[in-house]
DNA sequence: ATGTTC
């Protein structure tokens, strides 16, 4: 492990005050020795830098998928006092409300035999993918405002889903507090043609099978059983969210001196939560988050139609288990030093993992804790877990979000050949469809930390419980 | 992640 870091538990480490100047609280992160081998010193310094921000509460935190990001580390969690604290786009990420949803089907693997290629090709035809992908939907500028306020509900009201879907989304698919007037014309321009599109990079729509039921009782409550075919949607707010982040980072950088905020890194640009600039970022961030929920809802709808047509199953037989955000800032109540207080929790590449009885999780899951969905990298397992009371105590109800990159995109392109990768996955029975083989190289399994190990750490550390392991059968990518 | 360095 790095010098100056203290072990405080089997899988828990502390970055003490003083690791960088002006830290207000210690840093804490969760990691196994094997994951420690790929730990970047720069990411730990970022974790420590976050601890210098005004109003930070308890600890600057990171999950075992920690890696170097813009200002804040990816895999980072930080909570701020509502009066003294700040809000920062770097603590959310550029892809606002990047997230994941998991849907069950009534099919088994055998039902797919001989039809898997056709299924993947049909999904690829139905869901626009890739950088700059354009929607088949036509929405007006007025409708975009509705999307930014109503989120997934906008899609359901248009017939693209059911009201039961909404109950199974974090925030029921729309956070309150959207302020469309804080979203620039440029961001709107990027958002209008992209609703219902998957995007690129690690985003995907994957057909999976529930291979291993680790916790049968909870799996039953979540409505998933061994051998069941499922599909998973992983995407975010596309160009709109990216533009919102870009626009507001510029504004917040310009306001730092006004609020007397001194930063160790300009990428931590922030403003007091209750300031005009802070409120404007929050209002715009909510718009982008709601756009992302609408986006995943539309994509799920299109995929349901494909399954329906190909296998003759009813739309309603494909049940959304849950939809989680992993790049967002939220106002939540948490116990801090024995007292309940409202804080602004930033999760950047981290998933909410509220335990049994926590406010804000669907009633049907209240007694068992919320579903947590962790996507794997291409060709590797994904996981369904549940939130825990330990997460509530230690990480403001948060856990990891996925694998975490270990090789840059440019290095990956040099070291991996996309065509060989596609053929190798085909040999394992996994059908991959993308616009080009070149795009696949950047997302090869070996450029990510092993997701199974990341998930094992959060499970062992008690931040969430593994319920089901899912294996890929086929995937569409940008 | 991203009209992949406005």
TrEMBL record:
Its cofactor is Mn(2+). It is an enzyme of class 6 (ligase). Binds 2 manganese ions per subunit. It comes from the Archaea. Mn(2+) 2 binds at residues 234, 326. This is tRNA-splicing ligase RtcB. Belongs to the RtcB family. Keywords: GTP-binding, Ligase, Manganese, Metal-binding, Nucleotide-binding. PANTHER family: RNA-SPLICING LIGASE RTCB HOMOLOG. It comes from Methanoculleus thermophilus. GO terms for biological process: tRNA splicing, via endonucleolytic cleavage and ligation. The active site is at residue 401. Its EC number is 6.5.1.-. Monomer. Gene3D superfamilies: tRNA-splicing ligase RtcB (3.90.1860.10). One of its GO terms (molecular function) is GTP binding. The keyword GTP-binding applies. Mn(2+) 1 binds at residues 95, 203. The lineage of its organism: Archaea, Methanobacteriati, Methanobacteriota, Stenosarchaea group, Methanomicrobia.
């Amino acid at each position: 492990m790095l010098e100056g870091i203290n072990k405080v538990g089997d899988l828990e480490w502390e970055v003490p005050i003083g690791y960088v100047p002006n830290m207000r609280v210690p840093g804490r992160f969760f990691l196994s020795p094997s994951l420690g081998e790929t730990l970047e010193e720069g990411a730990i310094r970022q974790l420590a830098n976050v601890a210098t921000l005004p109003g930070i509460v308890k600890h600057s935190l990171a999950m075992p998928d920690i890696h170097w990001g813009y200002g804040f580390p990816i895999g980072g969690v930080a909570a701020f006092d509502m009066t003294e604290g700040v809000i920062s786009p770097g603590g959310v990420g550029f892809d606002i409300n990047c997230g994941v949803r998991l849907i069950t089907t009534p099919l088994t693997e055998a039902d797919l035999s001989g039809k898997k290629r056709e299924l993947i090709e049909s999904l690829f035809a139905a869901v626009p993918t890739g950088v700059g992908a354009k929607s088949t939907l036509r929405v007006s500028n007025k409708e975009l405002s509705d999307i930014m306020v109503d989120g997934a509900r906008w899609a359901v009201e248009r017939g693209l889903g059911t009201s039961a879907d909404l109950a199974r989304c974090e925030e029921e698919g729309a956070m309150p507090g959207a302020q469309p007037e804080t979203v620039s014309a440029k961001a709107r321009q990027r958002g209008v043609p992209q609703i219902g599109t998957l995007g690129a990079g690690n985003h995907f729509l994957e057909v999976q099978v529930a291979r291993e039921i680790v916790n049968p009782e909870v799996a039953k409550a979540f409505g998933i059983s061994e051998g069941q075919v499922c599909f998973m949607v992983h995407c975010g707010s596309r160009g709109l969210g990216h533009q919102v982040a870009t626009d507001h980072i510029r504004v917040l950088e310009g306001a730092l001196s006004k609020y007397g905020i001194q930063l160790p890194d300009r990428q931590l640009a922030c403003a007091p939560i209750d300031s005009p600039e802070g409120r404007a970022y929050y209002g715009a961030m909510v718009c982008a988050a709601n756009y992302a929920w609408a986006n995943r809802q539309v994509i799920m709808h299109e995929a349901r139609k494909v399954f329906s047509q190909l296998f003759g199953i009813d739309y309603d037989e494909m049940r959304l288990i849950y939809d989680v955000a992993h790049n967002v800032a939220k106002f939540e109540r948490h116990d801090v030093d024995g007292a309940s207080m409202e804080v602004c929790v930033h999760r950047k590449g981290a998933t909410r993992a509220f335990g049994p009885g926590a406010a804000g999780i669907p009633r049907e899951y209240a007694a068992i804790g919320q579903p947590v969905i962790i996507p794997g990298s291409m060709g590797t397992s994904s996981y369904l877990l549940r939130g825990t009371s330990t997460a509530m105590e230690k990480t403001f109800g948060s856990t990891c979000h996925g694998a975490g990159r270990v090789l840059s995109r440019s290095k990956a392109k040099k070291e991996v050949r996309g065509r060989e990768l596609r053929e190798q996955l085909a040999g394992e029975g996994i059908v991959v469809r993308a616009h080009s083989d070149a795009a696949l190289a950047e997302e090869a399994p070996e450029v990510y930390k092993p997701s199974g190990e990341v998930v094992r750490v959060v499970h062992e550390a008690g931040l969430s419980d593994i319920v089901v392991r899912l294996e890929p059968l086929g995937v569409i990518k940008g």
